[in-house]
Model the fold of this input.
Amino acid sequence: MKTAVIVFPASNCDRDAAMALEKVTGRKAEMIWHRETEIPADIDFVVLPGGFSYGDYLRCGAIASRSPIVRDLIDKAEKGLPVAGFCNGFQILAETGLLPGALMRNKGLKFVCRNQKLTITNKNTRFTRRYKDVESVTFPIAHHDGNYFASDEVIRRLEKDGRVLFKYDGNPNGSKSDIAGICNEKGNVFGMMPHPERAIDAQHGGTDGLEFFKSIIESI
Amino acid sequence: MKAIVHIGLKPGVLDPQGRAIARSLNDLGFDSVKGARQGKVIELDLNGEDRTQAEADVTAMCEKLLANLVIESYRIDIED
Amino acid sequence: MKAIVHIGLKPGVLDPQGRAIARSLNDLGFDSVKGARQGKVIELDLNGEDRTQAEADVTAMCEKLLANLVIESYRIDIED
Amino acid sequence: MTKTEKITPDVVAEHGLSESEYQIILDRLEREPNLNELGIFSVMWSEHCSYKSSRRHLAKFLTSGEKVIQGPGENAGVIDIGDGDCIIFKMESHNHPSYIEPYQGAATGVGGIMRDVFTMGARPIALMNALRFGEPDHPKTRSLIDGVVAGIGGYGNCVGVPTVGGETNFHKGYNGNILVNAMCVGHARTDKVFYSAASGVGNPIFYVGSKTGRDGIHGATMASAEFDDDSEEKRPTVQVGDPFTEKLLIEACMELMATDAIIAIQDMGAAGLTSSSVEMADKGGVGIELNLDNVPQREENMTPYEMMLSESQERMLMVLVPGKEHLAYEVFEKWELDVAEIGKTTDTGRLVLKHKRKIVCDIPIAPLADDAPNYDRPYIASEKRDVINAADIAQPDDFNLVLKQLISCPDIASKRWIWEQYDRHVMANTMDSSQSGGDAAVVRIHGTKKAVAISTDVTPRYCFADPVEGGRQCVMETWRNLTCVGADPIAITDCLNFGNPERPEIMGQLVGCIEGMNEACHALNYPVVSGNVSLYNETNGTAIPPTPAVGGVGLIPDSQYLTAISGAKDGDTLLLIGNMTGWLGASLYLREIEGREDGAPPPVNFDEEIRNGNYVRKLIRLRRINAVHDCSDGGLALAVAELCLSSNTGAVITKPHDDIPLHAHLFGEDQGRYVLAVEPNSVNPIISTAEGLKVPVRKIGTIGGDNFTMKDVFKISMNSLRHSHENWLPEYMKGDAK
Ligand SMILES: Nc1ncnc2c1ncn2[C@@H]1O[C@H](COP(=O)(O)OP(=O)(O)O)[C@@H](O)[C@H]1O
Ligand SMILES: [Mg+2]
Done:
C-alpha cells in the first residue's frame, strides 16, 4: 500500500495529510513536487492537500490544476486511481473538471475556521463505508472559498446518484444544498472542504477523520 | 500589444461580493445604487504584432486558465 | 443607468497575483505573454437619469468604499 | 533625487534628524554626507532602529537565565526546551502602518515577525496578536477592526501558520492610534540556530526573496513620527505583503539551512537593505561592499537611495560560505524566488555602495549602529493614586444586569468574530487556542510529547493608573496564564507601546513600566529574551495609554497533562486559590458600571503569586484539576462565568461570610487568584496540602445546571449569558460598513 501527497508551492496541509496517511497505512507517504510530470505507477492513493497553492491567485486551485503533475493525475484518475482532495485540494479537483462545480467566495465573505458538524449522506462509498453506525462527524474547516456551486441540474444528478457524501449541518459558507463533499461518477475521486486529516488525533481536532482514511485504504 | 480580458460571473450565479458592495453603498447613503456585480480584468502584455494571432492565443488562455467556464464568462479586447 | 468602475493597483505597487498569472501562462506554453496585471471591475446599476450627478456619486463611492486609495486607482465609465 | 542634491537644514529635518544629530554625522564623516548617506543615517538613527530613547532603560532587563540560549540583540530570542529543541520567539508592533492601511499594515506586520523567527532557523509554529482599538463608537473603529483582522488572517492563513490566540481591547485612548502587535513562535534544533553576525573577509553576500520596489520608503521613520491630521498624505509609504512568497521563502530558507552554506542570515525588516546590511556587518565587525546594480529590482530606474531605503517585503540577506553559492542558486531557483550575489564582506569596517560604476556611499559602520544616539530623556514618575475603599462604591441594585453588562462589554465579549477568521488548526498541532476562551494557547512540538504554551497580556488600565504596578502585573499575568494550562513559564518577549518620549510624563510611564516588568522578571526568574519598542503613538498631542504588551512562553513537558478552562464537569467543586480584599480601584467593574477610571490598581505580591501558581501547576500535573481559569478582568464572577461558558455548564456559588462588600467580592480584581473545578473527593486533600504550603484555598461553589447563581443575589441562565457574551462583536460589526 503506497500513498502520495502532491506538494504545490504554498500547499500548507501537506504534512498533515502525510501524517494521516502514515498513521493509517503504517508507511510514509511519498511527497511529490508539482514540477514532476508523473505519479509513480506503484502509488495506490493520492491526496491533494489543503493550503493556498500559488497564493490562491486568479482563482483558488486554478493555477495548481494546470501544473504538470496534475495533468498526469487527471489521466490516472480517469483510469481509476483513487484520489482525495481536501480544502484547496477539492478546489483543485473542481478546477480540473474531475469533480463537477466550482468553489466560490464564502457567502459571509470572510475566512471561516471552526469545528464543523457534517452529516454523512452516503455510507456506501469507498470513502465512507466504515462509518456504518455513525450519522455525523465533526471535522475542522478553514477556508475563504468553500461555497460550492453547480447548476441545479448537476446538483440534482449528484444527489440522485448518491455522489454527495457529506453535507454541512449548519451551512458555514453558502454551499448549494449544504454540500460539503462529493465524488465523481466512478467513485474513485473525492473532494471536500473540511479537513479529515486534522481529525485523526484526540489531542487535536478529535478522531472522527480516522475512519475516512481507513475506508479508502481498505478499499484498495 | 496588450490584451484586456474581462471576466464576470455568468448570469444566474450568485455574486455575494456584488451583493455586499451594493448593500454597503446603500448603508453609506448612496440610495441610487440598485445592484452591483464584481468582475475582474486581466491585462496582458504580449509580444508580437499579429492581432488575429493574439486574439486566438488569448481565447485559448481564457479557455485553459483565465476563466472558469462553470461559473464565468469572458470578453477580450486587443489594443495596440 | 450603469456605471462601470475599473480598479487597479497603482503603478509600483507589488502585484503578486499578476506575476503568478503571467508565470502560469508561460508554463502552459503561451510564450508571448510578457506580463500580467489583475484588476477588478464593479458594475453598478443606478437609478436616475442625470449623468453628471451619477458621475459625482460614483466618484464619491470610489473614494469612500470601492477603491483603496492607498494602493489602488480607479476609472469610471457611465453608460446609459 | 540625485546625490548631488544639496543637504539643506530642510532636507535634514525631513529625514527626521535633529540639528545635533546632523552635527554628529558631520563630525564622524568629517565632511557633508551625500543624500544616500543621509538617508542611511536617518533610518539607522530613527527611534525604530536605534531605540535611542529606550536603550538605556531596556538594558536593565533581566535577559539571561539557565534556559536562555539567546537574549535580546538578535532577530528573536531563543530558549532551551530540552532534548536538543529550542523555541525562538518575538513580538513586534505594526501600529502606524495598520492605522493607515489596516489590511496591508497588519498583514505585513505578521509577515515581518515571522521572518524574524525563521531567519534564525526556526520553523514558525504559532502566531498571536495583541490588538487595541479605539472606542466602538468612533467612526473609524469598525473598518479598522475589519481590515486588521482580515490582514492578520489573510497573511497567516496563507503561509500556513496557525494564529492561536491574542487579546483585543477597546478604549478611547486608541481612537487615533490603534495598536497591532504580532507575535511569532518557532521551533528549531539547538544545533541549527542561525545568527546575523557576518564574518570573514571576501565572503559573498546574497540577496534572496522578492524583488525590491519603491514600497515603504521611509517606513521606519514614519513609524517613529507622531501623527497629525495630514498623515493621510504619507500613504504611499505603505508596503504590500505577499504571503505566497513568504511561504516559499520559509521553505527555501529551511532547505538551505539544512546545508552548511550559510554563515549569517538576516531578514530585511524596517529600513530594508540598509539595516540588514549594517547590522550584519556591525555584529561581525566587518565591512560590507554592495553592488546595487545586482539588486533584483521590480521597477525601472531605481536610485541607490530608493533601493537602500525600500521596505519591500519578503526579502532576506545572507553571507554564504565561499564555494557554496551554487547551493543557494539551486534552492532558491527551485522555489522560484529571486536570488542574487550583491556584494562581499570586507575588512574596511565601512559600508561601501556602488551603483553604475560609481561609489555612491562610503561611511564607517560603527557610528551607524553602535554609536547611534542614546538619549537619557528626562522623565517624571506618574502621580500615585489613592486606594479606593470598596465600601465607598455603591452596591448595584441588580446583579443580573451587572453580570450581563460585564460579560458583553467590548473588552470581555467573545472575540469569536475575530478568531474564526484565523486558521487555528493548520500544522495539526494546536491543542488549545482562542476557541476555548482559555488563558494560554498550547501548541505541540511536532513529533514529540512536549508542547509550548503562549499567552499575551497587558492591562493598560493598570499601567495608566500606576506604571510600575501595571508593569509588574502584565508580566505576572502571562506567568499566571501559562500556569493555568500546566506549563512551566520560561521567558517573555515584549512590545512596549507608548506615546512621545520627549514628554517627561510619557517617558515616566515607559521607565515605570520597565521597572515594574523587570521586578517581575527577577522575582519569577522569567527573563526577557526579545522585544520591540513603539513610541510616538500619539495623535494631535494625545498619547495612548501606556501599553507594554507581554508575550510569555512556557513548556508543558508532557502534553497529556494539559488542563484547560473547558474541562469542568457537573458536580465538580469550585475552589478559589488566593487572597481576596475586594479591590475595585482601576477595575473593569469601576469603568464599565460606574463610568470611573480612577483609583490605584491592585498590587502584585510576588511571593504569594509564586506559591499559588506553583501549587496550581503541581495539581495539574497530579491530574487533580478538571478545569482552571485565573481571575483577571471582572474578578471572581467573570472568571467563573467564563469557565462555565467554556465548559458548557453552569454553577452555583455561595454567598461569602466576610465583610467585603458583595460587589467587591464578585468583581474586585485582586491578583494571584485562580478558580479551579475539581472532583468532590479531591477537595479535602487539596485544601489540606495547601495549608502546609501557605496557599489560601476556599470552597466557593459547585459546577452544574443551566444557570449561574448566587442565592439571593443573582440567577442568570447560561443561555442568556452566552447570548450576551457572543453577540456583542458580531452585532457591532454588522453596523455600517466603513
Ligand atoms: N485578537 C485575538 N486573536 C485571537 N484570539 C483572541 C484575540 N482576542 C482575544 N482572543 C481570545 O479570546 C480569549 C479571551 O481573551 P482575554 O480576555 O484576553 O483572556 P485572558 O484575560 O484570560 O488573558 C482568549 O482565548 C484569547 O486567545
Ligand atoms: Mg487569563
About this structure: The pocket of magnesium ion (ligand 2) is lined by residues D 439, 481, 630, 632 (CB under 6 Å).
